[in-house]
Amino acid sequence: MTKTALEMTRQEWTAYSSGVAKHKILDPLSVQKQRKEAMRLANHAAELLRKEYSAKKVILFGTLAMDTGFSEHSDIDLAAYGIPDALFYRAAARVSGLSPEFTVDLVDPDSCRPSVRESILTRGIEL
Known about the structure:
Strand order of the largest sheet: 3-2-1-4
Distance between the termini: 44 Å
Helix content: 40-55%
CATH class: Alpha Beta
Number of strands: 4
CATH architecture: 2-Layer Sandwich
């Protein structure tokens, strides 16, 4: 059964916090390098979606598409227009498996939540 932080014993908290401490915070230059690699991967995924899954347009959105906010924990958010329904989940699985370093999320802009669609339309970058 899962416990909240308030329910944990001192020993449990010590074990948890030592695991959290292992996650290294990257310096700004490392984050910049990671962002560049994420952009390369996003462009590769967009090309693959167009060539193999008939995407008409691929939009990058989320923190990678913004000038600020990208961190070592950021993922790659893509929206693809025109992928046939029968191929969409196969396409999503394909791009999500492109890199062990980054999580790639693919959404269908015609069937996603309105707040996500608004982000795609207002802050997205066509790749």
